[in-house]
């Protein structure tokens, strides 16, 4: 009887020795990525800041959220799904006037966090600060300075192209307020 128990115990020990122990799997290492960010955008929207009338009886509105912009900055990607970028740029909208340089300019500073899905879709949100906001009338209309403005930006897109929405208000030197909300398309390069 003892012999059978010993044989059974020896068989269990042999089976245990033959079965490799499962090693506890360590989490995959993801090196943090840093790099340069380049961004371009075309945006529309916002309240009318000025209306320009031309000799041919046409007119053009200059809107607070409208403009083309370019920005440079940095990005960090601490995990495959998460990234953040900080950029400083220049946003500009002009008029079709041929005898004057009438335009609205500002310097946007943004900090955007993004979540990246495996299929390339990205969602982003963050804060934005517009500074050096100025309407330039080129001696035909008065120059008008605006206070710094703070707001938020939301993004949804695929890989390097995103649709964006920015919410903010401008206030000019006379105390008048303007909605500077904008929507547009951005192209983002991260190197």
Which helices and strands, and how do they pair?
Blueprint: H1 2-18, E1 33-44, E2 48-53, E3 59-63, E4 67-79, E5 82-94, E6 103-116, E7 121-136, E8 144-145, E9 149-158, E10 161-167, E11 169-171, E12 177-179, E13 182-190
Antiparallel strand pairs: 1-4, 1-13, 2-3, 4-5, 5-6, 6-7, 7-8, 7-9, 9-10, 10-13, 11-12
- Radius of gyration, CA atoms, in whole angstroms: 29 Å
The helix-strand sequence is: HEEEEEEEEEEEEE
What would you call the structural class? mainly beta
Rounded mean pLDDT is 88
Can you tell me the overall shape?
A: elongated
Describe the main β-sheet briefly: 8 strands, antiparallel, barrel
Short description:
By secondary structure, this protein is mostly beta strands.
Relevant terms:
191 residues, two-stranded antiparallel sheet, 13 strands
Report on this structure.
The chain is mainly beta and 191 residues long. Helix content is 9%, strand content 59%. It is built from one helix and 13 strands. The strands form three sheets. Strands 1-4-5-6-7-9-10-13 form an eight-stranded antiparallel beta barrel. Strands 2-3 form a two-stranded antiparallel ribbon. A two-stranded antiparallel sheet has the order 11-12. A hairpin with a 4-residue loop joins strand 6 and strand 7 (121-136). The chain is elongated, with a radius of gyration of 29 Å. The termini are far apart. Residues 1-19 have low confidence and may be disordered.
């Amino acid at each position: 009887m003892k012999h059978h128990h010993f044989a059974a115990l020896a068989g269990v020990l042999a089976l245990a020795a033959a079965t490799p122990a499962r090693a506890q799997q360590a989490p995959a290492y993801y090196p943090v990525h840093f790099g340069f960010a380049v961004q371009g955008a075309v945006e529309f929207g916002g309240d009318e800041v000025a209306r320009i009338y031309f000799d041919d009886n046409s007119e053009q509105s200059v809107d607070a959220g409208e403009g083309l912009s370019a920005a440079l900055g940095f990005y960090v990607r601490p995990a495959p799904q998460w990234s953040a970028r900080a950029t400083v740029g220049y946003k500009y909208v002009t008029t079709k006037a041929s005898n004057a340089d009438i335009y609205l300019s500002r310097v946007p500073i943004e900090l955007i966090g993004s979540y990246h899905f495996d299929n390339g879709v990205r969602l982003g949100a963050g804060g934005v600060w517009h500074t050096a906001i100025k309407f330039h009338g080129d001696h035909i209309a008065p120059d008008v300075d605006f206070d710094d403005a703070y707001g938020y930006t939301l993004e949804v897109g695929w890989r390097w192209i995103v649709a964006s929405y920015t919410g903010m208000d401008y206030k000019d030197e006379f105390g008048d307020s303007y909605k500077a909300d904008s929507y547009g398309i951005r192209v983002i390069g991260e190197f």
